Amino acid sequence: MKHLKNVVLFTSMFGASMAAQSSELLNNASNTWEFEQYKNSLIQEIKDTHTSYQTMINESGSVHIMAPAAPLSSFEIRGVISSNYPQWEGIAPNAFSTTQDHGGREVYILTREIGYANPSSRIAKLNGSSLSVIDTHPVTSGSSVVGYLVVWKYSVGTFTSGTATASARSINFPNNQEDDRLYIR
Hints:
By secondary structure, this protein is an alpha+beta fold. It contains three helices and eleven strands; from the N terminus they run αααβββββββββββ. It has helices at 11-21, 24-30, 33-49, and strands at residues 55-57, 63-65, 74-82, 89-90, 107-114, 123-126, 129-130, 132-141, 144-154, 162-169, 177-184. It has a five-stranded antiparallel sheet. A four-stranded antiparallel sheet has the order 7-6-10-11, with no helix packed on it. The longest helix has 17 residues, at 33-49.
């Protein structure tokens, strides 16, 4: 389901694990001024949507659950980058398709979630092939976690076009599932 659609990502946010697994394409596109502006707008969107979460991040960066957290209320595909279009294409709210032609040996998508998904329930596919999580980044407001940005990688060969799907289930009551679908040209 498409709720709000603004997503974010990047090497500066995701740290060493992303850098170790990412390519030059991903690193170059994630370090542009335009992407930084888009990323910041997505982070602000998450913060503005939910302001009273119960999960906290301490000084060392560890996430600690203090009380029941807010349920997952949104899970969307918000960005795409590929070998054929080597800069992040921000995906607008309620978009059904990318506007740029993507494809090639490398394809990455960015999902944005508001609330708390069960990490093992997160799934993303491209033309039915599972995508791998490159990194997960908690978005904070103060010391409270209010959502997550997740970067996924397509590793099945050369991509031409097709449908990306993504879903996750809330970590707590009502254990609802949120999902999204995007045609990637």
